[in-house]
Amino acid sequence: MDMRALSYFIETAKRQNFTHAATALGVTQSTISKMIRQLEDEIGAPLLDRERRPARLTDMGRVVLARGQDVLAAHSALLRDITRTQTLELGRLDLGLPPMINRLFTTPLKEYRQRYPRIEVALHEDTGRAIEHQVAEGRLDLGFSLMPVAPELGLRPRIVARYRILAIGQPGLMQALPASPHIRDLNGRPLVLLDDDFALARLLDRQFQAAGYEPHVAARSGQWDWTLSMAQAGMGIALLPEPFIQDPESLGLDARPLGPETLKWDIALLAAAWPMLSHAAQAWVDLCRQHIDGPWPRMEDTEPD
Fold this sequence. Notes:
- The protein is α/β, with parallel strands linked by helices.
- The protein folds into three domains: 3-86, Winged helix-like DNA-binding domain superfamily/Winged helix DNA-binding domain (Arc Repressor Mutant, subunit A, Orthogonal Bundle); 91-160 and 266-291, Periplasmic binding protein-like II (D-Maltodextrin-Binding Protein, domain 2); 163-265, D-Maltodextrin-Binding Protein, domain 2.
- Helices cover 40% and strands 21% of the residues.
- It contains ten helices and eleven strands.
- Helix 2 (18-25) crosses helix 3.
- The protein is rod-shaped.
């Protein structure tokens, strides 16, 4: 149903006069008459009895007038909400963040809340694997995980940040290691690692297998800061991403980038629908781009490689 034709009919019905309605709407009387005729043709019944002066509503006209006003009000509300969503005055963002990386997004999140206070941000903290499933099922607009992402889910992750993995330990445990130790150089040395719920642990396990040995694991933890504390206590060498180790020397620790050069801690962005993101989601990505270096996608980008 043409909303303009409906509005012309309602204005005419209220005023019971084509001329007065035309004046109020700023159009010609013939335009109003034509639009109402089109509406009547679409409905298949006359809405006005033009044989009477002033024109009177038919039974069908009374139904259309009563319901049509609700339709126009709903249509106007829809247009307002569309505009408010496009201008980021209204919306919702369901965002998945694993505990291992959520601290990287504190500053973007704070600024996002300040810029867009009327956008509801629902944070879902879970393991990377759980977030991958939630994105695949359409329950999250955006999610973050660590590479590699589960291939069976059919997601096409976009790597948005890449960091080195550091070997960190007391100087006595690190002194015989090269400046950039290879994973094979850690054979036989005590290690303190994150537990298997972390993508980093799975990534390292594959590296140990490729190097052909079973690592000497002194302890595993579900918290990166405790893992670092155990390294500080001399329990073993910790393997952690670079962003979590700001000043190792102040902690009495030696930190060295772990080789091979291709071994990186890659943060992947997952979206419910590529390449188009909601306005709220794209605003989040644009803000992250300002604070975290990496190839963050734009709404107009093609699908990720």
